[in-house]
Amino acid sequence: MKSSPSTNVSTHFLSSPSSCDPRHTTHAGAIMSIHATRTVLALSFTVLATACGPKAVRGGEGTANPNLDQGAMSTTLDKVDIEDLVKKNSDALFASPFWARDVQQSGENPIVAIWPIENHTSEHLDDQMLNLLSQLETTLVNSAAVSVVSRERQAQMAEEVGVQQGAAFDPATAAAVGKQLGAKYYFTGKLTSTDERMKKERRVQYALFLQVLEVETSLIKFQHQSERTKAIVR
Q1: Which of 82, 90, 96, 211 qualifies as a cystine partner to 223, CB 3.0-4.6 A?
Q2: CA distance 11 to 193
Q3: This prediction's pTM
Q4: pLDDT digits over 163-200, tens only?
């Protein structure tokens, strides 16, 4: 005899797992535990990745990393190298007979102009060369012994006499510009480098050559060369 539909429904209902069935509760709890474990693992990996990844830091005087600038990142000139090169040349300048006789004992603050320092290295150092000029200009201004023509005014005057920006140094042209600026002396120079490689090591020897010339006569009144070496060693 066939069972009635109501009997089938009741049998199906009774055979279905109940939410109160301990087996069902255990299964659901296991699934939730797996999801929770995965979430914790994902968060842990995120924290580890963040902790091990690169981060931005501040360096210099007054920070938690006062010596951050001291480490070399490459063989290219950096801020510390430029400061060292300028300081060595300026120390030699201030200790020279020219500075004592023609500047400090002249009874006046002679006007000086700074001609762009030429980059004779094989590297593109536009930013570094501007920094070098700024360092030299600041050093001369702070000496309080000379009056320094602003580089903006000098560039304007050079343009008026037909000198292209970045043009190679020419004594006659520099003298003409210097006279129009009222300068008695002008500074010029060049940056050179010697690059050596052996296997996976590299050494670059930089030299900053600085000259002071008299505008009226083009006579060399002072010259000095400072060196700085950078290398990649293993």
Answers
A1: 211
A2: 95
A3: 0.70
A4: 555 555 677 777 778 888 889 999 999 999 999 999 88
DSSP for residue 224: E
What tokens does 196 get?
């050596």
Confidence of residue 155 (pLDDT cuts 50, 70, 90): confident
Please state, in angstroms and as integers, the Cα–Cα distance from residue 161 to each residue in 155, 176, 195, 234, following that order.
Answer: 10, 8, 37, 52
Number of Cβ atoms within 10 Å of the Cβ of 136: 23
Q: Give the DSSP per-residue string, 74-128.
A: SSS--HHHHHHHHHHHHHHHHTSHHIIIIIITSSS--EEEEPPPEE-SSS--HHH
**Dihedral sign for Cα atoms in the order 42, 43, 49, 52:** negative
Pairing of strands 220-232, 147-148: unpaired
